Q: What sequence folds into this?
């Protein structure tokens, strides 16, 4: 589950029926302090002063590769990884290991643990393996961007982008527009929940977030709503969002294939082409 390294704007809720921030206000958020190292190792029910011994990598619960493969492609969890993670957390606790193709992953299902990891990250971010994306860009003679490069080169690109990104004071000027999209998003979310079989579940949150992000970005860039959150979505918008989803799906499947397989097929089947 990758996270794009972008500046995050957090808006404080001010009351029912109102925007998240007044027009022109600076958006701020109180981020809770990360758990101190002496607290992070305490057992949840342990008494004061009793510390849990830190486990080594070999002691972390792990999934067998064949079992994980079976659950992904036979039981159908390949495109529903969030549901599989809920099951794993209930079985293994807040931390477990899994293998995605040749890659080993340590999974965290705890907000305090994840906060510790992110706060302890160094000057340059350490990302997941991007071999598939890099190969695609190499074959199309495209340079690496901030999403695929790492280290000092990433830092140089990020520094250049920072000059063009909205500063907090300027970004706050768009709160009214952003809140308008959020209101429509919440309305659409309630509609989909009411229409579901259970009456309280949205079957494809990822797609709904694609629509939300595209609607918000286009409204800010072009000062125009494109209808992503309406009941009847324009066909061009549907095609664009579907292509993005197809790209991520193909990336997931290609991860489990031998490198020679997708390296040969990539020129005739670009990642995002439907």
A:
């Amino acid at each position: 589950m990758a996270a794009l390294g972008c500046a995050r704007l957090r808006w404080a809720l001010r009351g029912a029926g109102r925007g998240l921030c007044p027009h022109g206000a600076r958006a701020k958020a109180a981020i809770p302090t990360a758990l101190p190292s002496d607290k992070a190792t305490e057992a949840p029910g342990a008494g004061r002063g009793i510390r849990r011994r830190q486990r080594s990598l070999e002691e972390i619960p792990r999934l067998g590769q064949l079992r994980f493969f079976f659950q992904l492609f036979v039981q159908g969890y390949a495109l529903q990884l969030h549901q599989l993670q809920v099951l794993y957390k209930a079985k293994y606790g807040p931390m477990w290991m899994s293998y995605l193709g040749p890659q080993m992953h340590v999974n965290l299902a705890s907000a305090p643990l994840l906060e510790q990891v992110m706060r302890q990250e160094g000057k340059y971010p350490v990302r997941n393996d991007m071999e598939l994306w890099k190969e695609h860009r190499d074959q199309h003679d495209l340079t690496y961007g901030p999403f695929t490069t790492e280290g000092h080169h990433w830092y140089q690109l990020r520094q250049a982008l920072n000059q063009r990104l909205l500063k907090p004071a300027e970004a706050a000027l768009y709160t009214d527009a952003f809140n308008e999209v959020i209101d429509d998003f919440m309305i659409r979310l309630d509609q989909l929940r009411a229409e579901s079989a259970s009456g309280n579940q949205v079957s494809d949150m990822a797609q709904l977030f694609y629509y939300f992000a595209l609607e918000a970005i286009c409204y800010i860039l072009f000062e125009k709503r494109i209808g992503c959150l309406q009941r009847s979505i324009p066909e061009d918008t549907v095609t664009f969002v579907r292509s993005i989803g197809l790209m991520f799906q193909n990336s997931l499947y290609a991860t489990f294939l031998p490198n020679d397989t997708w390296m040969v097929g990539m020129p005739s089947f670009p990642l995002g082409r439907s």
User: Anything to note?
Assistant: Residues 167-256 form one domain. Strands lie at 95-100, 103-108. The chain has a mean pLDDT of 76. The radius of gyration is 22 Å.
